[in-house]
Amino acid sequence: MRRPSRRYWLDARRAALPFALSLAAIVGCTRAPPPASYPVARIQTRLGEILLYLYPETPHHRASFIKLASSHYWDAFTFNRVIPDFVAQGGCPDTPAGFADSPYLLEPEFDHSLRHVYGAVGAGRDDNPKMLSAGCQFYIVANKNGLARLDDKYTVYGRVIKGMDVVEAVVSEKTDGTHNPVVAIGLHVDVIEMTADQLRQLGFMPDAGAP
């Protein structure tokens, strides 16, 4: 059998090029476009405003926070346990009975890319063996070195993108023997939509994934 010439192979490659380009275009079109906007939790207090990015990697915790914020559930609560170099805890307070009054409990959503870094937002829980999160409580890490000992024990589902100065003011408030501020720090929590450009202006890269 006669061996095809070099010209034959060059012509074959040219003929295949339009098909390859069309296939690439089709594949490119099937990729999901980035969202037009992102849900951002906004916590307003007498000390200032805090903005939280809610991670898509923890969809159930994110959906829970948005649901409770949309119904103004958090507005009945305060920052009730604040400790410098530890956390600012808000929502329903700890009780000896655990979280029997929580609207519901959530299965943990541990993600190795989501750590207890400075400004991380996590879900509170009691000592239940399944490490279920209380839907009614959240905390913000206020230790600049992070709290690695909490990793894979409490679910991290967000991060402060604006207002860590406010968090520092919260944990610096005078407290009683249970670390509850003497002057209440009420919560007004809602959810706003922000574009990727608006998030980048705050120094956060939404398309880069979790830090």
Give a structural overview.
The chain is of the alpha+beta class and 211 residues long. It has a single domain, classed as Cyclophilin-like (Cyclophilin), CATH 2.40.100. 24% of the residues lie in helices and 25% in strands. It is built from four helices and ten strands, in the order αββαβββββββαβα. It has helices at 6-30, 59-70, 164-171, 196-201; strands at 38-45, 48-54, 78-82, 87-91, 105-106, 120-123, 133-134, 137-141, 156-162, 188-194. The strands form two sheets. Strands 3-4-8-6-9-2-1-10 form an eight-stranded antiparallel β-sheet. A hairpin with a 4-residue loop joins strand 3 and strand 4 (87-91). The protein is globular. Residues 16-21 have low confidence and may be disordered.
Defining traits:
10 strands; Cyclophilin; two-stranded antiparallel sheet; 4 helices
- Give the C-alpha Rg: 24 Å
Question: How large is the share of residues in beta strands?
Answer: 15-25%
* CATH first level: Mainly Beta
Q: Alpha-carbon distance between the termini?
A: 60 Å
Main pleated sheet: 8 strands, antiparallel
Give me the secondary-structure topology:
Blueprint (H helix, E strand, L loop, with lengths): L5 H25 L7 E8 L2 E7 L4 H12 L7 E5 L4 E5 L13 E2 L13 E4 L9 E2 L2 E5 L14 E7 L1 H8 L16 E7 L1 H6 L10
Antiparallel strand pairs: 1-2, 1-10, 2-9, 3-4, 4-8, 5-7, 6-8, 6-9
